[in-house]
Amino acid sequence: MRNIILLIFLAAANLVQAQDWEDRKLFGPSNAQQVLRVLSSTDVVYLDTVLSDFVRTVDGAQIEYLVTGTADINDIIRKDPDAYDVVISSAMDLQVKLTNDGFAKPLRTIERPDWMQWRQSLFGFSAEPAAIVVNTAAFKDLGLPRTRQELISLFRAEPDLFRDKIATYDIRRSGLGYFFATQDARASETFWRFTEVIGNLGTRLYCCSGEMITAVAKGDVLVAYNVLGSYAATQALADPRIQVIVPEDFATTMMRTIFVTRNTSRPKLAESFVAHLLEAAESREPVDRLQLPPLESEAGRELQKVVPLEPSLMIYLDRLSRKAFTLEWESAIIQ
Amino acid sequence: MKFLLVEDNVELANAVISRIKMDGHVIDHAEKIEDAKLFSDTGEYDLILLDIMLPDGDGRSFLEHHRARNRNTPVIVLTARSEVSDRISLLDLGADDYMTKPFDHAELQARCRAVLRRNHGSSQPVITIGDVRFDPVAGQVLVQGTPVKLRNRELRLFELLINAPNQIFSKQKLFDRLFSFDDDVSENAIEVYIGRLRKHLDGSNVTITTLRGLGYRLDVK
Amino acid sequence: MNDQNGDKVNIAGSLRNTLMISLIGGALVLAVILYLVVRTYAAQIAQSTQDRILSASVTSILDAAAIRNEALSVELPYSAFSILSTQADDRFFYAIHQDGRFLSGYEHMVFTETPNGQMKFYAGRYDGSDLRIATGSRRLVGANGQTTLTVSVAQGQQSLAGVLNRISRNAGLLGFGFFALMTLLSLWLTYATIAPLTRLAASVQRRGPEDLRPVAAPVPAEMAPLVGSLNSFMRRLAHSLDQSEEFIAEAAHRVRTPLATVRSYAETTLQRVDKLENRQALRAMVRAIDESSRAAGQLLDHAMITFRADHLRRSKLDLAEVTGDLIRAMRPLADMKDVDLDLSATQQVWIEGDAILLQNALRNLVDNALKYAPAESVIQIIVSDDPANIRVQDSGPGFPQDEIPDLSTRFTRGSNAAETIGSGLGLTIAQDVAVAHGGTLILTNRKEGGACATLSF
Known about the structure:
The structure holds three protein chains of three kinds. Chain A is α/β, with parallel strands linked by helices. Chain A has 14 helices and eleven strands. Chain A folds into two domains: about 1-125 and about 255-310, 3-Layer(aba) Sandwich (D-Maltodextrin-Binding Protein, domain 2); about 130-250 and about 320-335, Periplasmic binding protein-like II (D-Maltodextrin-Binding Protein, domain 2, 3-Layer(aba) Sandwich). In chain A, strands 1, 2, 3, 4, 5, 6, 7, 8, 9, 10 and 11 form an eleven-stranded mixed sheet that branches. The radius of gyration of chain A is 21 Å and the shape is globular. In chain B, α4 (about 85-95) links the parallel β6 (about 75-80) and β7. In chain B, the strands form four sheets. A five-stranded parallel sheet of chain B has the order 2-1-3-6-7, with helices on both faces. Among the domains of chain C are: about 205-310; about 315-455, 2-Layer Sandwich (Heat Shock Protein 90). Helices cover about 55% and strands about 20% of the residues of chain C. Chain C has helices at about 5, 15-65, 80, 160-205, 225-270, 275-310, 320-335, 355-370, 405, 425-435, and strands at about 65-70, 70-75, 90-100, 100-105, 120-125, 130-140, 145-155, 315-320, 340-345, 350-355, 380-385, 390-395, 440-445, 450-455. In chain C, the strands form four sheets. Chain C has a five-stranded antiparallel sheet with strand order 4-3-7-6-5. Chains in contact: A-C, B-C. At the B-C interface, α1, α4, α5, α6 and α7 of B face α5, α6, α7 and α8 of C.
């Protein structure tokens, strides 16, 4: 009885924080001695199996899985770092900065290659390329472009067809969009040319991958550029109206990353959770417990253009840099 | 017999000379190695008595000289030095025997005889009295041609007597010659040896006559 | 001469140890210095490397600044941060200020103002991490006047610490390797330095005691004075030994010659004297002379034997032959007393020894036997092997049973020897010779009567 009151009380306290979670799910027994609070930007559906597995293998452990946006996660952790034990986010730059600023706890027992981890604190566990999503019907006769160059040629060949039918992230509103754009810009000169081309065609700007995919499916736009591939692929399975293309010239690939907060009250449990997740991400046998694209081997990484976990990611978070990049982007895309 | 005495100490030399002469021998005396070489090169000696420490050098150099000239006159070295240091080299250099000073004349005589016997050379003739022959060098006594085995003292006693037949020897005189000074026997011990000698001469025509109060005499019947 | 203190050497320190300790100690000090110098120098280089990287980062940011449309625009070059990637994933912080006003980066990072165009490097702390900070500034001139941009980049020291640790370990290994090498070298050097000394000591030790030749083998220059002194000392020793031998010989000569003179005169005189008292007086005189000459002789022999036993000249010799020679020499003496010397030496008995000493010992034993043996008795001399020994047996009165242990002590004579000439040194000499040869003199009385003296080796 007292427990119930306590739970209500705690729930009330959460409400007082006025935090609107996109999703919130509890794993494991409700009477568990220790509760691991996981703050994540990844939808619970992708990690459901892994989380259930974990609470099953560890006695008396409960996971409170809280889902919110990457920017929110950044803000929440900076404001109240001790309230959460594990942080999962797809925004590599923010995660790196959080780690650099000392919010992450080094995990000594976990071994990962250099590019997959930073400061022994931040670990990547999925590789997700930025993809191009196209409307199946529109491209039936055109043939699917395999590279950005082919796409540009297509745009140039059929400007009327694509006018106002191209979608991409509004980098001013989307952290992921900004991230993909900066990485594209860094990876290739083609990016600015491409941006100018689609700018000329009157590109529509979106805040999120979901909206873009929906728009492609409906035929509102024919091409969506730099959509989160894993997300699109899931959609494409169920929706024949769209097709996902991972460009063959290079595919900017981001990692979802995880870290344990510095002052976690359950360091052991948190660390074993991270180990469990990384292990699940690595070995897809016998069943695919993690519905996310795996990190490729060293060889595959080159093609995938996985953005390594490096402090230099922080450069795009700089106010001045962001301002300069955004200005340039604006001048290219808004005409 | 003819001796050559090489001795630088005149006193000692005189004492030795008079003692040897007393036994009826002839003796020349050299005080230096030089003289000794001269004597030995020119004269014939039965035996050389050689002192080792001489004013003009070591007696050993004389020995070398002597042996180098192939003279086989036996040499008895008289040394006052420690036996320990000298002996071997002396014998190596060809001395036939050696004696340490001071020496007993009886021992000197004994050694002379032993040396001469070894060297088979002496001017001393074999003495014949009656049917008894005596070879002083070989120490052999033949009674009617048959050798008679005499003990050393008996032999020396017999030699004394045969050297001067018909002469009377007092008991003391014989005692002095027969016994060394550390022999603790009385002069009457002579009677025992006279008795033994008489037994050896049994059957010959030579007898030892006792002259009461005077001594003994060798007679031929 | 050869008492216990003689062989004891007063030792203070060891050349080998001193040399080794100095060399190894020196090597240790050098190794530590080497370690410190290498480490310090490497640390400086590592630090300056970090400084150069920080400086490059700061400079690239400063260079990226431009005034566009009358506003300051700074687009941080990717390289400004990417060059700061380190092995240890060091944290880094930066702050950009315009005319002292915070523009971007970490607002609370403390930095030092630097004049335009200069770069400052200094240590600092931020958020619990030790940092190395580089600060540089640049003046930009626009239409509305000039503005100063100050950029500070700070990096954690973890990677540098890792580098320093590696350097320290390597410097330590270098120092240790150097030390180990030097230690080996020291051991070899010590060995090489000490070797001539050891060789000299061994060669001197190996010499027979009578070998007093100078050391002829070449020695290092530093040892020349020692070897020179040693040679000169040995020369003097040889000289003084020769002299003592000469002295003993001379002493014997001086004592014995006059005795010989007196004895000869006494003997001659005895032949001419008939009166009993006079004869007895002369005989007593001769006996006294004999006694004193024998005593002098034995004393000198004893001195000579002590002298020779100290540096025994050993050579391989046949005990049977040595005994035979002596018995031949003594036979005339025995004959005079009608005593038979019966030598029984059926086999060769080889020992290492000094023939003169052995013969002297044996002479004293046979002399003794001759003295006490009754006339016309037999003295047996038996040489046998295993262990090599010579037995001299007579049929005299034998040793007084209760005095046997003391008989070979100097000047002791048996109580039954009152009437016999002898100084009492005979057995002592025999004993000394036996001991010098590592043997013993055993005195016993025979069951059938008579003494038995055994020289056993």
